Amino acid sequence: MSIAPLTAVIVEDEQIFLKELVLSINWDKLGINLIGTADDGIKGEALIKETEPDIVITDIRLPGKNGLEMLSSCPVNNAIILSGHTDFEYTKRAIRLGVFDYLKKPIDDDELEETLARLAERVREENKELEIHKNADGMEIELPTTVQNHTVQMAINNMKENCTKQIGLADVAEAVRLSESHLSTLFKEVTGMNFLQYMNALRMNRAVYLLKHSNMNISEIATNSGFPTPGYFTKLFKRYFNTTPTQFRDGC
User: Is the pTM here over 0.70, yes or no?
Assistant: First the structure.
């Protein structure tokens, strides 16, 4: 069975560099469809919200809205930053947004392809694991909610309390007083899931409950379950349950 290609968009205001990225990267070999480009942060935000790509490649310094502001207002879980500027504050913000890698211009094509290959592998692995924790009825995700590790238990409790908010690994790591890399590794070892998988599963279970037991519309359920946009919520829901939220509710 063939593997469905991932999707990507590029947001870059230097037209020569943008054209080079489009033409020089072997997208087919990577199993990635480049589905759009934009040359400023406002257009980039609109493109991301419209297409909901698996991967975003973006510069930081963009007209209209900088790349980090753009990413923070979009449903992006997997991004690569390309920048001609090394700024510690930018780097810190990128880490908090869960950016996969931060590459300095001028970009080496081989380095970018290698980074994209690693990110694509991670995205595909996460997609495969979506099925692992479902119950027999396919409409609730089984999660380890009580674990023997005290720090991970604190992290889980924090995630449960705040899953309806826009929080990420950096926020939870700060709450339990660990570095992000340490918490990420420990969380995976103890729970068998990475941080994002667990957080999305918490939010999905809340969404399923609201679909069954509330009169909220889909947009309200998305917001009240911690998802940044209704479109992103619907896309992720279909990945987990092979049906849309509306179809699921109609079948209840």
Answer: no
